[in-house]
Amino acid sequence: MYGQTKQKRLMVFTDLDGTLLDHYSYSFEKAQEALQKISSAQIPLIICTSKTRAEIEVWRKKLNNDAPFISENGGAIFFPREKWTFDKDKIIDKDEYKIIELGMKYSELLARFRSIKNIFRERIRGFSDMGIGEVAHLTGLSRDEAALAMKREYTEPFLFDGDEEALKDLQKEVTSLKLNLTRGGRFFHLLGNNDKGKAVRIIIERYQKRFNHVKAIALGDSYNDLSMLKAVDFPILVQKPGGLYDKKTRNLPNLVRAPGVGPIGWNSALLKVLGETLASS
């Protein structure tokens, strides 16, 4: 971003699973052309995912990424300490980050989750009910990767075995506990008063203060990404496995529908939007 001209302040937000990363192999190899383009243009790639901080740190190393990132569906924003300064009363200074927490603490969230389990019993199973082996089996992750996925701080992924009526009952119970519910590619996610969109808007505001004028692009594949896609100038929806678009997200105004699944669509659509945006600046 620092190398762009004043007219070309762009930033890219991306979901990981099923978007930049292949749903099955977790590979981003087929997105390399677009990744290289944004790297060359010094456009920040900001990860915004349901994954934990511990998981994201692994992917940041693989991607050679040093931008801020958003963990657990907007549970917290992590700014690299050496590049960012904040008012101390609004920030947590921890490890190599300056952190803005938006989500509910995991311990409190689990206490409320237990009351939901008392109602739905065997129909609902969260990560906190599972061992590493089960999480690895359900996600396709290695045991080491599953252990990182279980280091929750702000959200509880869970499986729910119920029809549409049962799901409505679940939503009512979640709402009564002043919690929120969203659905990703594999799991439901229980969370507090946070979402991807709130976190994305905070980061955009921070970049606006530094660069005055920015334009934001975001890429996702599911309803879980809707708030993020709504928060940016150029929302891009990639296809899910099977070549379909998430039906709850596909009617967003100004939405760009990527012509491909996961990282294939990510690469193609982002190259097109970048080309058009940079050319018009």
What does this structure look like?
The structure is a single chain. By secondary structure, this protein is α/β, with parallel strands linked by helices. It has 2 domains: 6-102 and 211-280, Rossmann fold; 106-191, Putative mannosyl-3-phosphoglycerate phosphatase, domain 2 (Threonyl-tRNA Synthetase, Chain A, domain 2), CATH 3.30.980.20. Helices cover 37% and strands 21% of the residues. It has 9 helices and 13 strands. The chain has helices spanning 32-40, 53-63, 106-120, 132-139, 143-149, 164-176, 196-211, 226-230, 262-280; strands spanning 10-14, 45-47, 69-71, 76-80, 92-94, 97-101, 124-126, 155-160, 180-183, 188-191, 215-220, 234-239, 256-261. The strands form 3 sheets. A 5-stranded parallel beta sheet has the order 2-1-11-12-13. A hairpin with a 4-residue loop joins strand 9 and strand 10. Helix 4 packs across helix 5. The longest helix has 19 residues, at 262-280. It is globular.
